Amino acid sequence: MLNVLLIGAGTMGNVHGESFKKMGNVVLAGIVDKNLQKAKDLSERLETKAFQTFEEAIEVLEKVDIVSICVPTPFHKPYAIKAADLGIHVICEKPLARNLQDAREVIQYCRDKNVNLFVGHVVRFFPEYVQAKKMIEEGKVGKVSVVRTSRGGGFPKASDDWYADYKSSGGLVLDMVIHDFDFLRWCFGEVDRVYAKSIKDGDKKHLDYSLIIIRFKSGVIAHVEGTWAHQGFTTKFEFAGEKGIIEHDSSKSVPVVFEGRNKGTLGGGVAVPESPLKHSPYFTELQHFINCIETGSQPIVLAEDAYKALEIAISALESIESGREVVLGENQKEEAQIR
């Protein structure tokens, strides 16, 4: 039985806490939040203990095997290091850090302390995305050439309005669209270059929209859209190859659709709905991390994957600021005028 200490009682803290509570091989030992009342409210519902600081929790609790970090991005590194110093395994919500240097330091620190570091890139556990990747690997659409993804809705609300603090959150590119960066890299490999545009400026504090064009080393071109300027959260994707298109739109009742190309006519084709099983991807993700700790097996999402997703996101932010494309190198990024 593994004992988990949850850091953060906000939205993701609730999600993690409820998931851990349902697991038979985990004890939710306590919840930490600087707002003690929030920690108490969640701890009462999940039947565990509330603490205002990490140090207080460690002093009171007999045993902590894992910390689950669900606080704003700037606090990921400090809590990960505190846990690693005590030999405690780390589950951290994405993004791993606000910048690449901090992310690398966290990865190396956990490695040096011989503790596991798992990062919550949960899209890899969403059944519709898993199904799409499987169809791509099976060659159902042939060689994929063009990809379109979309993700977003309204501007998120959080304590201290921290999402609106661009220097802390990185906006929707770093905090939300990074999900698509990770998934696309999982499907198509390493990225060659990135070009991005955004509406974000000082007059639109609670509106954010970005369009990112990614060219992969494999030749695939992806158009990645993110928005915090609409209502109702939705996700969409299209994977186009010479044999057809794989589509998904969360606002529709059919999760994943394959439309084959009919060579005899323009357009049309047969829509074949493929309905994946409906399990909580957050529960599945966290249970997977727990199983990796218990068995010593390699996780679906490596810490290096989280670093690579962050690298793409940081490159997109650099492109937005400079107005130029950013070329990703092995050890450094170069910027060049978009062709």
Using the alpha-carbon principal axes, give the shape: globular
Helix content: 25-40%
For the report, how would you describe the main beta sheet? 10 strands, mixed
Strand order of the largest sheet: 14-13-12-11-7-10-9-8-15-16
Number of helices: 10
**Average pLDDT over all residues:** 89
Please trace the helix and strand order, writing H or E for each element.
EHEHEHEHEHEHEHHEEEEEEEHHEE
Please outline the helices and strands.
Blueprint: E1 2-7, H1 11-22, E2 26-32, H2 36-46, E3 49-51, H3 54-60, E4 66-69, H4 76-85, E5 89-93, H5 100-112, E6 117-120, H6 127-137, E7 144-152, H7 166-169, H8 171-188, E8 191-198, E9 209-216, E10 221-227, E11 234-241, E12 244-249, E13 256-260, E14 271-274, H9 281-295, H10 303-322, E15 325-328, E16 333-336
Parallel strand pairs: 1-2, 1-4, 2-3, 4-5, 5-6, 7-10
Antiparallel strand pairs: 7-11, 8-9, 8-15, 9-10, 11-12, 12-13, 13-14, 15-16
Written description of the protein model:
The protein has 339 residues and is of the alpha/beta class. The chain has helices at residues 11-22, 36-46, 54-60, 76-85, 100-112, 127-137, 166-169, 171-188, 281-295, 303-322; strands at 2-7, 26-32, 49-51, 66-69, 89-93, 117-120, 144-152, 191-198, 209-216, 221-227, 234-241, 244-249, 256-260, 271-274, 325-328, 333-336. The strands form two sheets. Strands 14-13-12-11-7-10-9-8-15-16 form a ten-stranded mixed β-sheet, with helices on one face. Strand 12 and strand 13 form a beta hairpin. Helix 8 crosses helix 10 (303-322). It is globular.
